[in-house]
Amino acid sequence: MKTRFATLLVSYLVLLAAIGSAAYNAVATGEKMTVVAAKFLESLSPELRAKATMAYDAPQRVDWHFIPKAERKGVQIREMSKEQRTLAMYLLRSALSEAGYGKATKIIELEALLKDLEKNKKGTPLRDTERYYFTVFGQPTADGKWGLSIEGHHMSHNFVVDQGRVVSSTPNMFGANPAIVKSSSVAGIEAGLRVLAKEEQLAFDLLGSLDAEQRKVALIAEKAFDEVRSAGAPLPPNEAPVGLSGGKLNDDQKKILWALIETYAGNVPEDVAADRLEPIRASGVDKLHFAWAGADKPGVGHYYRIQGESFVIEFVNTQPDAAGNPANHIHCTWRDLRGDFAIPIKK
User: Which residues share a beta bridge with 59?
Assistant: First the structure.
C-alpha cells in the first residue's frame, strides 16, 4: 500500500509541477523532496541503493566539488534505468526552482558540447552528460533528518531536510562552459545560449552604474581572482566583507543589487528562497557589500563578490572556453556564512 501511495503521489506531484498548479507550490519543498527521495531509493536495486545511500554523518556529506572528478560519491545517471533516471531528475526538480532546474539541465547538456569541442584534444577531463551523481544521507522520512547531494561537473547542490523542511541549501554551485555559446555542433544547443546570463549581466549593470568614487571603493583588485574561494571546502570563506557598502548605493543601484541577490536565491524553490532572503532583509542594505576585481567588460577576466551577514555570493569568469575564447567560463556559488550543510559555525 505504501509503495502504491508513493507512486501515485510522485505522479501527482510531477503532474502538478508540469501545469504549474498553486497546489504544488503550497507543498513545502522539504516534503516534496522527502517523498521523491524515498521513491527514488525504492526504485534502485540493492547494489545501486548501496551506492546511493550513506549515513547522515558520513564525512562524504561535506565532501563536495564541481570539477570533473574521476570518482564521486553516489550513484550516477549512467547506471540508472529509464524509470530511475526520471525519478532522479524529478528529485533534482523538487529541490530547485523552475529557473534553477532550467539552468541545471542546460549545464548538463553543455557537457555534450564540451565533449565535441574537445574530441581532438588528448588528456582532457571527463565530459559526460550521464556523470552526475545522486547521494542520500540518512533516511528520507517525514519526521527525520536527511541530506541530499546532486553534483557533477559545474554543478553541486547540497541540502539538509529536517522534519519536512529544508534547513540548509548550501553549498550551491552553478558553472557554465561556454558561458556564451559562440557556435554549436550539438543538437539542441544553439549559438547564443547563455545559461548564467543574469548572474553576469546584472553585475555588469551594477558596476556600470557606479560613479568614480563608488567604483574606486568597490574595486578590490585590478586582476580577477582565478577561482571562487573555499571551493570544495566544507566551511565557507571566513573573511570580513570588502568593497562598497550597500548603504553607499542610490535607490536604482540598490534595486540592481537586490535583483542580483534574488537571481541567486531564486535558484531554489520559493519557500527555501524566502528563508535565504529573510535574514538579508532583516540585516538591512547597509550590511551588504559589493566587491569587484578585474575587467569591466566581457571577454576579459572578471570577478565579483556580494557579502552580507548570513551569506556570500562569488562569481568568477577568467578561464577560456573549450574553443579558446577568453573569459567565457563561469563558476558561481552561494554559501551560508552561518554554516553550510546545516553545520553551525562556532563564533
Answer: none
Q: What's the average pLDDT block by block, 10 residues per block, for the chain (347 residues)?
A: 46 52 75 96 98 98 95 96 96 97 97 91 81 98 97 98 98 98 89 97 98 98 98 96 98 98 98 98 97 98 98 98 96 98 91
| CA dist., res. 81 & res. 41, Å (int) | 13
Query: What is the pTM for the complete model shown?
Result: 0.93
Look-up of cell digits 584534444: 121
Q: What is residue 24's three-state secondary structure?
A: helix
Report helix, strand or coil for 322. Answer: coil
Q: Phi and psi of 79, rounded to 5°?
A: -85, -5
Q: What are phi and psi of 151, to 5 degrees?
A: -155, 160
Separation of first and last alpha carbons in the chain: 48
- CB neighbour list of residue 90: distance below 8 Å, 6 or more residues apart: 10, 13, 14, 17, 36
Q: Is 213 helix (H, G, I), strand (E, B) or coil?
A: helix
Tens of pLDDT along 7-49?
545 555 554 554 455 666 678 999 999 999 999 999 999 999 9
What integer pLDDT is reported at residue 97 of this predicted model?
A: 97
> From the CB of residue 151, how many other CB atoms can be counted at a distance below 10 Å?
22
User: What is the rounded CA–CA span in Å between residue 229 and residue 249?
Assistant: 26
Tell me how crowded residue 230 is: count the other CB atoms within 10 A of its CB: 18
| DSSP string for 69-106 | -S--SSEEGGG--HHHHHHHHHHHHHHS-HHHHHHHHH
Instruction: Check residue 139 and report its DSSP letter.
Output: -
Contact in structure between 148 and 166 (CB atoms under 8 Å): no
C-alpha cell at 13: 506531484
28-61 per-residue burial string, b: 16 or more CB within 10 A, e: under 16: bbbbbbbbbbbbbbebbeeebeebbbbeeeeeeb
Strand, coil or helix: 285: helix
Task: Tell me if 301 sits within 8 A of 224, measured CB to CB.
Answer: yes
Look at strands 289-294 and 219-221 and give their pairing: parallel
What is the grid cell recorded at 326?
577568453
Q: Domain locations in the chain?
A: 2-168, 197-342
